[in-house]
Amino acid sequence: MDTTGGIVPLWKPRGMTSFDAVKRIRTIYGTKRAGHTGTLDPDVEGVLPICLERATKLVEYLTADKKVYEGEVTIGFSTDTEDAGGKVIKTTPIQKAISENEADDVLLRLTGRIKQVPPMYSAVKIKGKKLYEYAREGIEIERPEREVTIYKLERLTAVKNTEDTASFSFRAECSKGTYIRTLAVEIGARLGYEAHMSSLIRTSSGSFRGESCVTLEELEKMDDPEKALLTVEEAVKHIPSITVAREDELKVLQGAILPLPDVQKIADAPYFGLYNRKHELLALYKKDEKRAGKMKPEKMIRIMN
C-alpha cells in the first residue's frame, strides 16, 4: 500500500477483540504498521478507527478525543466483569418500580467530572501486569481512582420495570479512559441496587461517526480497499490549524522552533496542526513553554523527501 497510509474508519463487530480487528486490517492492507485509537471490549461493537503507516503517529491524539456510547443498564444484579458476559455475583431484586424521574436525576448527578476505579476485567496495567490477568487468577488488587469527564448523559428509552429488575438505554458522551461498564454499576448504586451494563455500542470516536464506518466484510469485498481510507488531514480536521508560508515549510519539516503566530484559534490549544499551501499536514506543534512567543514540534507527521 501507499506508505503515506491513512485511517480506516472501522465498525468493529461484537465478538472480536480490538487486537484481532487490527490483525485483520493488516492483512487486508498488506501492512505491518497499524494501531487502533482506543480499545473496544469483545462484547462491544462500534467505531474503532485504525491508523496505518504514517498515520500511526496520530494514534495517541485520536485516542484522546471524546467518545460517544449508547448502552443499556440492567439494575437488580451485578456481575464480576460488570457486563452481561460475566458471572452473577450479587442480586438485589427491585423493591419498587424505578421512575423515569429517578433515573434522569441519577444521570444528571453523574454528569461532569467523576471518579472511577478501573474494573478488574480491564487492560489497565498495575505492577507490569494487566488487571484482567489478575482477575483470571482470582486475585483482586487495589486500583487507583481516575478522574474522567461525562460531558453528556441522557436516557434514550423508557425505564422497563419487571418483577426483579429494571433497565433502560442511555447515551454517554465522555472523555478518554471512561469505563461505561463502571458507569452502569454506579447508576445502579445511586438508585440503591446492584447493576451491570447489559449492552454497549460506540457510536462515535472523535470526528469518526458510525454512519461513516465500514465493516471488515465490506473491506474484504472491495477491489481497492484504499478507497475506504481517510487521510491524516481528514482525521485531524477538528484540531486547530494554521497554514505556514512557503519559505517556512522546509523549517517545519526540519523540526525547527519558530515564531508563534498571533492567531486566536490556537491561543488555548494544547497543540495545533501546521499545514502547507497544498493543505498537507506537516506536523503538530505547540507553544514553547521555555521560549516566549515561540512554538516547537509536538509530533512530526511528514518527512523530507
Automatic annotation (TrEMBL):
Domain tRNA pseudouridylate synthase B C-terminal span(s) in chain numbering: 181-232
Ranges for domain Pseudouridine synthase II N-terminal: 26-180
Source superkingdom: Bacteria
Tagged with keyword Isomerase: yes
Entry's transmembrane regions: none
GO biological process, one term: tRNA pseudouridine synthesis
Entry's EC annotation: 5.4.99.25
Protein's UniProt keywords contain Isomerase: yes
Reactions mediated catalytically: uridine(55) in tRNA = pseudouridine(55) in tRNA
Pfam families given in the database record: TruB_C_2 (PF16198), TruB_N (PF01509)
Keywords assigned: Isomerase, tRNA processing
Catalytic site: 41
Molecular-function annotations in GO: RNA binding; tRNA pseudouridine(55) synthase activity
NCBIfam families to which the protein is assigned, alphabetical: TruB
Task of the protein: Responsible for synthesis of pseudouridine from uracil-55 in the psi GC loop of transfer RNAs.
Family per similarity comment: Belongs to the pseudouridine synthase TruB family. Type 1 subfamily.
Name this polypeptide is given: tRNA pseudouridine synthase B
Organism annotation: Alkalicoccus saliphilus
